[in-house]
């Protein structure tokens, strides 16, 4: 994702690195924080927390890419016989890491779960705080909305109005069925001009208003291995979209709810606090398991609209059997897996849950599958790319928010 932030280039004075704000540093390393680079690809635990050494490397790379390391300091670090962490440059980066912790962007922990003092790394891990998640969501949302030519997250227009919900709209003559939200000034003006005895229904003026329905949404994120295959990372943009949507809802639609489900060989709910550092999981795609869990989460919600936003790039290839075992078949559309998946889609329809699918691939079998899902739940299908999926998801969400009451 392209970053449009102002970058100051440092070339002479070490002290100028001290002036770098934690928020600027977070912006510089946001792609590393959200991407795959901070986790060991051979670690059997895909949810393992990255280490402070990983954070050190991310900051070092970000500074080097932007030519922000003073030449003298860089030469000293490269020529030194010891570890780069022991050089002046290393000490400077360590100060930045300590500042991130002091400013509440990261929380440092040790392998055994105990807190550690400033300046320790190696075996120590770090976790993003709520402040970090909110910052990354805001940054992702700002970038995505900027790509759509919108000046702010909440500045979206609609042509659909209703009388009686939010008294911010245009004036109109009263029609049968409208709620009598009379605009006193305009109505009295009409009546006085014609005389009380000559007043008619159309002289009554009501104020229209936008109606924003309450919504419960589950974002279903495919984290099977295909999301990082073929030289393209599709999972990081998907997470950025999810974080942006979370920030949009928190700031613009606080009455809505949003939850996240990761699906791979199986499926599990992931809290927002752990979403940014979620990683690609096992290899297969248990779409049925993800849909089933999403429905369970939505059953608890009492909202006008319930929907599943599914972001995926693969066909269903796994299924959880009644005894808990995972049945897998990665070759073609397995009729057994497909049948179970479509049964879950049918359950969504019966429950009034709309499934909107954002597909990051265009395999003919996938196209047919996605169309069937959309038709069965009266949802929508978008065939997108990692570069434009954010605009599609956000615009779809905001357009679904407006309903006609009249």
Description:
The protein is α/β, with parallel strands linked by helices and 406 residues long. It folds into 3 domains: 15-128, no CATH class; 162-209, no CATH class; 215-400, Rossmann fold, CATH 3.40.50.410. The protein contains 14 helices and 13 strands. It has a 6-stranded mixed beta sheet with strand order 8-7-6-9-12-13, sandwiched between helices. It has a 3-stranded antiparallel beta sheet with strand order 3-5-4, with helices on one face. β6, α9 and β7 form a beta-alpha-beta unit. It starts with 14 loop residues before the first helix and ends in a 6-residue tail after the last helix.
Percent of residues in helices: 25-40%
Write the CATH fold name of the largest domain: Rossmann fold
The tally of domains stands at: 3
Mean pLDDT, all residues = 78
Radius of gyration: 26 Å
Low-pLDDT stretches are 1-13, 113-122, 150-168
Describe how the helices and strands are arranged:
Elements: H1 15-18, H2 22-28, H3 30-34, H4 52-65, H5 71-79, H6 88-102, E1 106-109, E2 125-128, H7 130-147, E3 162-163, E4 171-173, H8 184-194, E5 205-209, E6 215-222, H9 235-252, E7 257-263, E8 267-269, H10 272-275, H11 287-299, E9 305-312, E10 318-320, E11 326-328, H12 335-350, E12 353-359, H13 364-377, E13 381-383, H14 389-400
Parallel strand pairs: 6-7, 6-9, 9-12, 12-13
Antiparallel strand pairs: 1-2, 3-5, 4-5, 7-8, 10-11
Helix pairs in contact: 4-6, 7-9, 9-14, 11-12, 12-13
